[in-house]
Amino acid sequence: MVVHEQGEQVDHGRRMVNWLLGSSLGVLFVSIFYPIVKYLIPPKLAEPTTVSVTLPWKLAELKANSGRIFRFKSLPGILVKTSGGDLRAFSAVCTHLQCTVQYREDRQDIWCACHNGVYDLNGKNISGPPPRPLEALKLNVRGDQIIVMKG
Q1: pLDDT (average), residues 34-45
Q2: Do residues 111 and 100 lie in contact, with contact meaning Cβ atoms separated by under 8 Å?
Q3: In the Cβ-directed half-sphere of 41, how many Cα atoms lie within 13 Å?
Q4: What b/e sequence results for 82-121 when a residue is b if at least 16 CB atoms lie within 10 Å of its CB, and e otherwise?
Q5: Is residue 1 over pLDDT 70?
Q6: For 49-65, b where at least 16 C-beta lie within 10 A, e where not — what string?
Q7: What is the C-alpha to C-alpha distance for residues 149 and 54, in angstroms, rounded to an integer?
Q8: Cβ distance 9 to 17 under 8 Å?
Q9: Alpha carbon of 87 to those of 22, 96, 108: distances in Å?
Q10: How far is CA 38 from CA 28, 30, 31, 33, 74, in A?
Q11: Partners of 117 in the beta sheet?
Q12: DSSP 147
């Protein structure tokens, strides 16, 4: 009878040691991999509260049939002055894989070089893999200043 109680005490002690070792290994793995995972997955940055940007170029500096990239919040934007003199602004992020688009003067379209996506001057996707049009931005011209707004 005494031997049986000692066996139960040994089993109970062994289970306790196994639980402590297992828990310690779990804590060790979490303490190693959690910082690695946090490093690999960057935190989402809060967007600035400003919804308008005054562009550094004057209206008179822009020639017809040209496009320029600017920074709108944390993402690039594109300003296009058509051959007719109209100004248009879009997000310069391709809707396919988020590459930066550019204006092609010779073809008068907006082009994504990553996968040959093409948008017309209204931001509509007309060929290639982009699934959606470019996000249009509002323009406000005050004198010679160009202000781009989202909304």
Answers
A1: 87
A2: no
A3: 5
A4: eeeeeebbbbbbbbbeeebbbbeeeeebbbbebeebbbeb
A5: no
A6: eeeebebeeeeeebeee
A7: 9
A8: no
A9: 65, 24, 13
A10: 16, 12, 11, 9, 21
A11: 112
A12: E
58-85 pLDDT tens trace: 988 999 999 999 998 888 999 999 999 9
Cα torsion 142, 107, 123, 128 to 10°: value is -160
What's the order of all strands across the beta sheet hosting 145-149? 52-54, 145-149, 136-142, 87-91, 75-81, 66-72
Which amino acid appears at position 94 of this protein?
A: C
Cα–Cα distances in angstroms (integers) from residue 92 to residues 52, 75, 106, 111, 129, in the given order: 16, 8, 19, 10, 16
In single-letter form, the type of residue at position 70 comes to F
Element (H, E) at 24: helix 2-40
- Residue given tokens 């003067």 in the structure block: 105
Tokens of 77: 């934007």
Q: How many residues does the chain have?
A: 151
